[in-house]
């Protein structure tokens, strides 16, 4: 029996982080967590990029351009959609979540979902380096594992 698993070695990985400026204080903390995780797993700064977009709704388009360019092994999308501050929470959060999932499937590049969807700013802060950890760091770790898993898995049409 063959078992496939991704490891957490980011030494040779090219990773793009796409981050939304809306709720910037939170986003910056998610970004810090993501970069810290990538570096702790051995990523080289020369192989990392950070792209800012206006809001979470814009994450999928930028992620698609980057993932489709063939220059990265994984993308990490970061942002915070806070219900208390938006009547169109569902549309923004749902658009970001569905869009990011579609980009990943369309391009075959892992795109990690590091977008907080919370009721309050406090709940978001707790998940951006507060008492609930840092979801940006978690998303970056997932991106590393998935990039390495996909490298190990058979390619489309590849017979093993
Ligand atoms: N974008 C966010 O990333 N988080 C939010 O909480 C948010 N709110 O509150 O509306 C938000 N809106 C902007 C949205 O992402 C788009 O930038 C905008 O709709 C233009 O397309």
Task: Name the descriptors.
single chain; 160 residues; alpha/beta; Rossmann fold; 4-stranded parallel sheet; two-stranded antiparallel ribbon; 21% strand; binds 5-nitro-6-ribityl-amino-2,4(1H,3H)-pyrimidinedione
Bound molecules: 5-nitro-6-ribityl-amino-2,4(1H,3H)-pyrimidinedione
- Name of the CATH architecture: 3-Layer(aba) Sandwich
CATH class identity: Alpha Beta
Uncertain spans: none
Computed structural class: alpha/beta
Number of domains: 1
End-to-end separation in angstroms reads 13 Å
- Number of H- or I-type helical stretches: 5
Tell how many strands the DSSP assignment holds: 6
Task: Give me the CATH superfamily.
Answer: Lumazine/riboflavin synthase
Helix content: 40-55%
Along the chain, the helix and strand elements come as: EHEHEHEHEEH
Q: What is the makeup of the main sheet?
A: 4 strands, parallel
Shape type: globular
What portion of residues belong to β-strands? 15-25%
CA radius of gyration is 15 Å
Strand order of the largest sheet: 2-1-3-4
Mean pLDDT score? 96
Description:
Helices cover 44% and strands 21% of the residues. It is of the alpha/beta class and 160 residues long. The protein has a single domain, classed as Lumazine/riboflavin synthase (Rossmann fold, 3-Layer(aba) Sandwich), CATH 3.40.50.960. The protein has a four-stranded parallel sheet with strand order 2-1-3-4, with helices on both faces. A two-stranded antiparallel sheet has the order 5-6. Helix 1 packs across helix 5 and helix 2 packs parallel to helix 3. The two termini are 13 Å apart. The relative contact order is 0.23. The structure holds 5-nitro-6-ribityl-amino-2,4(1H,3H)-pyrimidinedione (INI). 5-nitro-6-ribityl-amino-2,4(1H,3H)-pyrimidinedione binds next to strand 3.
